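[audit] Reproducing an earlier prediction to check determinism. Same input, same settings, fresh worker. If the tokens differ from the archived copy the diff job will pick it up downstream; this log only records the rerun itself.
[audit] input (430 residues):
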Amino acid sequence: MPTSGTNITSIVKSDVGQTAAPDWGTNLNTSLTAVDDHDHTSNKGIRITPAAINVDAELEFNDNTVSEVKQVALESQSSQPSDKSRAIYSYGGELYYRDASGNHVKLTDSGSLPTTGGTIGDMTGTDAAVNYVDGSKAFVFEHDGDNDEMGKMQHSTLFLYNFHDDDGATANYYITLEYTGTSSANTLKVPDETGTLLSSATSYGGGAISIATSASNNNIDLTPHGTGEVNITKVDIDAGAVDGVTIGTNSACTDLRVDNLKLDANTISSTDTNGDVVLDPNGTGTVKTDDIAASTTNGDLSLSANGTGQVKINGDDGSNSFTLPDGRGTNNYVLQTDGSGDTSWGSISALSTVDNIVASSAMNISGTVSDQTVYFGDTFTVNGTMTVNADLVLSNIYQKTSAMTLTNSSAQTITGDGGATITGHQALFT
């Protein structure tokens, strides 16, 4: 009787010498159909083993998935292929991917991710590299990976996050760097030092902040907008100059120091030990003031000329000024003027005219006053005691239209000690 055999279950085998026609022919037709339909799937032929496959041309999968593949072993190519896009291949012992634009992206480099090109477009064929350093938790962008030379980076708006390595316990706070200008290009330069960028809401406690220009003799301009001001709490200008400014316009400067001078409240004083305060006008200029007084109670007021110079009173008015003499003069000398602005010390005997003398308290005359021409006015009044310790001779009284009176006021006395004589010509004593 006919039997079924092989792993094509639809094949019917006729028994030789037993199966008669037409069954024999029917079995043959059925078997041929089964052979024609076999595709080596279950019950449709023997499964094909690798030894039976020799692919010598492109193998098309017709947009089907290759699944349950344990490994894919690629043949290293002698050159980078360019006939297929979106293709994976091996070149130089490394794995590459050729994208739809024809870029060859290197996926491996000596057993790790590539360090020279491959992960960013247009890096192939250059020395550029992008690497991650786990120790510092940093991504490193280099334009020359072989020599560790860092590359430039171009951004639009840039977000800078605070770094933390605590598995998400710290919030991702960040600042935004954004260029809002309209010029084609501008440059913000960072100095070669450690520091902190400050804003209106930031303070810095890391030490002194130094602002300096790097080019020779360049200015630093601080210009507020509109009616805004540059507010500085404390200023220390070291060996510099301040030009064209006002101090204390809106709020008083309570302590101003210039060299060895200090201006505080209403006092200008020197800060060096026993230092002078010099008021020195330019050229023919003068120091003008309405009043000069000593600053301390019962303090002295000293006016001193320089070198051989002299002290001049009202020196800016030639018709009314006078010059004080050098030195202190001699005992009992008096200060006298020549009428032209010069004064000198002279003895009392040199006085030629005394006019309208009124003594409000005691008047003492010592020594000898004699044989001098003494002019008195119409009245010589003593409101106290006039004591004469020597001869007083009133002689040669000229041009008197009336008698001169010597008035003893308020029952005071006029005496002459030691028998002194008081004489006079045309005098009336009352």
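[audit] rerun output stored. Observation attached for the diff report: Residues 352-429 form one domain.
[audit] end
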